[in-house]
Design goal:
Blueprint lengths: L3 H10 L1 H19 L7 H25 L3 H23 L1 H10 L1 H15 L7 H14 L14 H7 L3 H16 L9 E4 L2 E4 L9 H22 L4 H25 L1
Antiparallel strand pairs: 1-2
């Protein structure tokens, strides 16, 4: 549901943090569209994470300006997971990169089992079926836990790369919106004079904090990826300083309005 008044209000109240967000999207654009990357597995995997993160950034912005707080928070949670995983892989790429990539054989086999269990009439190419099973048999001994490529939870991967704050304060809290816990109702269910009010549709909300977090996550993912590709991070650090300035100006503006 698109409500023009909500969009106008969100864009006006958050003009500076939205501008900071735009700067980071453009920085992502520069490396996604601006030329070749080194021809190695780590660089190509980093490019995958950049592309995935870029799409999340665009989706996140649309949800924020549309006044869809809970859904924007779900995308922010995804962005945190991307940052944790690329940081975890990049810490020991010689050990972790192959595990990340080859886990596809485990995932494909799990999907095949689901299809065979619930869609018994599905026509699956026998050659493809045999290949999936062959790949699974060749790799299954490397994965004791067939549901996690790293055999660690997101929480443990975050701890390994000193991203505990991001897991505890963002990923874990925003999981309530993903799983429809009762805590997720606080954004659109209210009590007024002993009556329950449910906000149907978009609402303006204070988004400076989550926009700021999206920018910082962009810096982290870009910095790690550029290091993996052997590229300079100087321009990124300059862009990040500009983003910080814009966000701080917006925070100070909100503070003055509240006084």
């Amino acid at each position: 549901m698109y409500i023009k008044e909500v969009v106008n209000d969100m864009e006006m109240r958050h003009s500076k943090s939205l501008e900071a967000h735009k700067l980071m999207v453009l920085e992502l654009d520069k490396y996604l569209l601006g030329g070749e990357v080194p021809n190695n597995l780590l660089s190509h995997t980093s490019l995958y994470f950049l592309a995935k993160f870029h799409k999340s950034m665009l989706s996140f912005r649309l949800l924020v300006v549309s006044g869809l707080n809970e859904d924007a928070s779900i995308i922010l949670r995804t962005m945190v997971e991307i940052a944790i995983v690329i940081a975890y892989i990049s810490k020991e790429p010689e050990k972790r990169l192959d595990r990340f990539i080859e886990y596809r054989h485990i995932a494909e086999h799990r999907l095949l089992e689901t299809i065979e269990k619930y869609y018994t009439n599905s026509k699956i190419d026998e050659q493809r079926r045999s290949q999936i099973k062959e790949n699974y048999e060749a790799n299954k001994s490397n994965y004791k836990n067939k549901t996690q490529w790293s055999e660690l939870s997101i929480a443990d991967m975050a701890k390994d790369v000193s991203m505990d704050f991001w897991y505890e304060a963002v990923y874990k809290l925003d999981s309530s919106y993903v799983h429809s816990n009762i805590t997720a109702s606080k954004g659109f269910m209210f009590e007024d004079n002993d009556e329950l009010l449910v906000a149907v549709g978009p609402l303006s909300f204070s988004a400076t904090d989550i926009l700021s977090k999206s920018c910082e996550l962009s810096r982290m993912v870009l910095y790690i990826s550029l290091k993996n590709m052997g590229l300079s991070t100087d321009g990124l650090l300059e862009k990040w300083n500009e983003c910080q300035r814009l966000i701080q100006e917006e925070i100070e503006s909100r503070r003055e309005e509240a006084e």
